Amino acid sequence: MADIVYGIYEKRLVQQAGGRTPRHVGVMLDGNRRWAREAGFTDVNDGHRVGARRIADLLGWCEEAGVEVVTLWLLSTDNLNRDAAELQPLLEIIGDVVDELAEPGAPWRLRIIGALDVLPVETATRLKAAAGRAAGREGVEVNIAVGYGGRQEIADAVRKLLQQHAEAGTSIEALAEVLDVDHISEHLYTSGQPDPDLVIRTSGEQRLSGFLLWQSAHSEFHFCEAYWPDFRRTDFLRALRAYGIRHRRFGS
Hints:
Layout: H1 2-16, E1 24-28, H2 32-38, H3 45-65, E2 69-76, H4 84-101, E3 109-113, H5 121-133, E4 141-148, H6 150-167, H7 172-178, H8 181-185, E5 198-201, E6 220-223, H9 233-244
Parallel strand pairs: 1-2, 1-5, 2-4, 3-4, 5-6
């Protein structure tokens, strides 16, 4: 009976969204550790393991809704300061997730974004190899943000821009004359992709914490009370409904 009720409710959520679908959805998969503690687990990485199993579900919901790009924030640069006893299992979980998304028959295209040079070499190599195996697919493009920080991304973009123009012999003075936001955007980790229309954060926290700082200037935000391991299709459809009924002003 509950399944029937939820099915009817979900159809209504889809109707209320009015057919307005975000092209790019960013998701902050937050609350795994708190979920594990409240569920009685002694190892907080059990929360990450349960949360990891929700990722393919989310991508399926996005594909069904017509979303073209999904950015998943799995590990921030700040997370790298965690105790090794917690960090190493988390890196293994992330590696397992990305390998699963790259399996033959999976439709996802993968892009690894973040400062990969701050990750252990074996982790960075594993992630890049998985993305290579998923190249050329036609499904939803999935950005896996690992070792990611918004300020770091902007700093990296400016550094790449300066290096490019230095190699071309452009002086700093000449670059300063023409530099605009598009020059920086071209060197972001998400270069070539649309900016996120909708950013979802689970766990009830209501802040960006540095996620897609540059790209989210005109994004709509949806904060969900559920911890990531408890995030359901209904929660996703509520986020799409919230997006669908808003009047986007793009900063005006």
